[in-house]
Automatic annotation (TrEMBL):
The keyword Signal does not apply. It is a multi-pass membrane protein. It is found in: Cell membrane. This is Arabinose ABC transporter permease. Signal peptide: none annotated. Residues 11-387 form the Major facilitator superfamily (MFS) profile domain. GO terms for cellular component: plasma membrane. PANTHER family: CHLORAMPHENICOL EFFLUX PUMP RV0191 (PTHR43124:SF3), PURINE EFFLUX PUMP PBUE (PTHR43124). The lineage of its organism: Bacteria, Pseudomonadati, Pseudomonadota, Alphaproteobacteria, Hyphomicrobiales.
Length: 395
């Protein structure tokens, strides 16, 4: 008797759980820079290389893994990626030195390169185009919850136990989701292979290149800024690691609100490109105000929440634009976009972390603000080109 097909809602929920750990692992370091530095006898700026190692691996491997997913099917990538994420978390938790932990983060980068773009490519295959922004917002809600709860749980578990506890918890969670995904995700669909040159050439199409570059600029700046947000709160207000974890959760709550609002806002605006321009402008304002102005602690947390809300709008809107234009190359295009994001993060994270060590948040605000404005400029150019793009075409 054939196995019943899981409902689309159940598939979306499973994908949301899978990408939850991408957000949790990538962002839970925000309140942990100082405890990790103490554990490895290093400086907080040195701990930023845990993020950079992840970003390098992600950036190098994402296009190849995305291309592989387009050919062998999404399930065959998602399940091993969850196992690899668990292995990465355990390797970092029991690393004998910072150098070993940095090398181990390569595993996490490979897993992230498979998980996130493949999940969104699966949505593009199973959800009608007019509903994709909303569906991607729901799956991004899983990523958002990881961003919101990852720093919180990391801070609380570090205070209650030690810095290893958050990584062990991530490993156990990944294994649990792996068991669920093995039962829920649809079988992989074999596809006709296209030459690598043909798929790669699409990345140079204007309609593909512009949203890819835009996402690299604004998302790289956003992640780099958020990763130092905990240290900004620590240096300005003298908060403990646990309280910092709770405070930066405001960013994640804002992200969740943005993810849930993007479907309706896109329907009202008429197209995700319009939502994206608005969201990037709001990111620039809130991120710059948080980093460059020393307001009250409450005001700083409100700015974090608004910054998160804008990012929660921008991410699914940007992804919906990319998938609708990429067609059958969605996995490869999204993975290549993730490479650009992580290349930006690789450059920005160590720089802004070193500045925070000298309490130089204004310079960080200027650098990250310039990246965000570059993204806004690319999107405004893209808006001007929209009347020239016919349905189903790129250019």
């Amino acid at each position: 008797m054939p196995k019943p097909t899981p409902s689309p809602s159940l598939i979306l929920a499973t994908l949301a759980l899978a990408v939850y750990f991408v957000g949790a692992v990538e962002f839970m370091l925000a309140p942990m820079l100082t405890p990790l530095a103490s554990a490895f006898a290093a400086k907080p700026a040195d701990i930023a290389w845990l993020v950079s190692a992840y970003a390098v691996s992600y950036a190098v491997l994402a296009p190849l893994i995305g291309l592989l997913g387009d050919r062998i099917g999404r399930r065959r990538l998602l399940l091993p990626a969850l196992a690899l994420f668990a292995a990465d978390a355990l390797a970092v938790a029991f690393a004998p030195s910072l150098s070993f932990a940095i090398v181990a983060r390569v595993l996490g980068g490979a897993a992230g390169a498979a998980l996130t773009p493949t999940a969104f490519a699966l949505i593009a295959e199973t959800v009608p185009e007019e509903r994709q922004a909303g569906a991607m917002g729901l799956v991004l809600l899983g990523l958002t919850l990881g961003i919101a709860t990852g720093p919180t749980f990391a801070g609380l578990l570090t205070d209650a136990y030690d810095w290893q506890a958050p990584f062990i918890a991530v490993a156990c969670g990944c294994i649990a989701v792996l068991i669920l995904a093995a039962r829920i995700l649809p079988p992989s669909i074999a596809r006709r292979s296209r030459p690598l040159k043909a798929s790669a050439a699409r990345l140079l199409d204007g309609a593909i290149l512009r949203p890819n570059l835009s996402k690299g600029f604004w998302l790289g700046a956003t992640i780099a800024g958020f990763l130092i947000s905990g240290e900004v709160l620590r240096s300005r207000y003298g908060l403990s690691t646990g309280v910092i974890g709770l405070s930066v959760a405001a960013f994640g709550l804002g992200l969740a609100a943005g993810n849930l609002a993007v479907g309706r806002l896109t329907a009202w605006a008429g197209r995700p490109e319009t939502v994206l321009v608005f969201a990037i402008g709001l990111i620039f304002f809130t991120q710059s105000a948080f980093l460059a102005t020393e307001s009250s602690c409450v005001s700083a947390i409100i700015l974090l929440a608004l910054w998160g809300f804008a990012s929660g709008l921008a991410a699914p809107a940007n992804t919906a634009v990319q998938t609708s234009r990429a067609g059958s190359d969605a996995g490869f295009v999204l993975a290549s976009s993730e490479s650009i994001n992580n290349c930006a993060l690789l450059v920005l994270a160590p720089v802004v972390a070193s500045w925070i060590g000298r309490a130089d948040t204004v310079d960080a605000a200027i650098l990250l603000g310039a990246c965000t404005l570059a993204a806004l400029g690319v999107n405004l150019l893209d808006q001007r080109s929209l009347p020239k793009i016919l349905p189903g075409e790129t250019g």
